Structures
1.
Amino acid sequence: EAEAQQVHFYDDIYNLWASYRERAETGRIVIKGSQQPWETSRQAILKHFLHPTITDTAVHGWLLFMQDIKTHSGRHVHQGGLAIYVLEGKGWTTVDGVRHDWEEGDLILLIVKPKGVEHQHFNAEPGKPCKWLAIIYTPYVDALGNEMTQKEMSPDWAHG
């Protein structure tokens, strides 16, 4: 009869938390914007500073990215629960079909809704810079069972 493998859940969590402490002590404190690449995605042109797959920073559990809106983003739906700080320019965001105007220095809050929040972002002055920064605490959205559905692709997205 084969021996059952012993599971050490306590040791696993002990080691995981130790790895978080080590990451906090040794990870990057400053993430240089000039060293972060821009990415064209189905939703927008994005520059990620914190992401679950970026593991050499001093913190974990955050998704933080900049969006550069040339004309408008794609349109998608997810449960919400994030903050967007407008860095430059002015525009508007449609949330469940309702237009909300914003400008540099404003904070956009996407509320949590069980069936998600449909939203899209627009540059009010195409040809002029329009950028914002999204801040998401990933354990929170993970606990929501976050699902994302892309409804319309960004006009900048060239992939099929």
2.
Amino acid sequence: MTGTGEQRPDDAHDRVQWLEAVTDTGLAGLSVEHVLSELLDKVRALMGVDTTAILLLDPSHRFLIATAARGLEEEVHQGVRIPLGEGFAGRIAAERHWVALDHVDHSTVLNPILWEKGIASLLGVPLIADEQLLGVLHIGTLTPRQFTSRDAARLWMVADRVALAIRSQVDRKSVV
């Protein structure tokens, strides 16, 4: 945005590109697992990041569990669990607000896989549907990067789509 409130042409093009990516009708017929995989791949490419991950709230509402990832697959394979309100992802979930970290180490994140892999910067947003917290979506880079509110807004667009996909799966299971 410029100081006059007008959008620069590249901003408008960028917004359209993002909206097309997250509302791709080709995703409609896919299973939730495939939708999550496709969206994680798209986010990774569009945002130029090295990692993407989704952590979902467990049934007790006390932990976030790594469910899907690109670049951090071991996070899912090891079943990483983060207590709600603790660490990077736990804080995002508890506060229901985006969080960016310019420095990743044991003092800023609970998950050792993140600093062992050399993640330098992180950005995460909550997954919310019908005002209900479902989990967290986060991205990371191996080189230092300062994520902005604009980056957070883009990630939140994807988070909304992910939350709807997850919510629709839960609704279908409760009907059966």
3.
Amino acid sequence: VRTTPRKMRRAVDLIRGQHVVEARRILRFSPLGASHDLEKLVNSAVANAEQKPGVVADNLWISRAWVDDGPTLRRYRPRAYGRATRVRKRTSHVTVVLQTMGEER
């Protein structure tokens, strides 16, 4: 995701341990910019989980979620006296693990 890990972790902390329906509601009305990408990720994870037989979206909850650093894009910006400054455009790797209500780990 083309969002810094620090900003993405703020959004992930809101939904960790929540029921999927509640997590979607939190992300929909969150003012954080990273919540839009995270909402798309949760919807994708739910759709993938529903492909297994017997799994219903209403019984899912977010058991674990974490953010790791992705590759950093390095760009240069012109500065005074003909110098250049490096600009680091950071990215994130986001992982979301879903479980059904009856499962224990």
4.
Amino acid sequence: MTVLLTGACGFAGRHFTAAARAAGLDLLTSSADGEGADLACDILDPASVAGAVAEARPDAIVNMAGQASVAASWREPKHTFDLNAVGALNL
């Protein structure tokens, strides 16, 4: 089973990566710019999402990309909404 993980470089994503690899999953990691991950997948950009999905051809997608900080969400509510809602819609 091939799994595409978005948000692989975040706090939860790093833990999921370790657990998934320990379980023997075929995991492809992604980050918005591709740095520190297998591929780039900016969930705010539908073309980037389509490209990453086409390249990975995953059986499943685990989305851990988004804004998790409550404090940051109050400072940047539109950006938080875009990441958490529009990003999920793009996926």
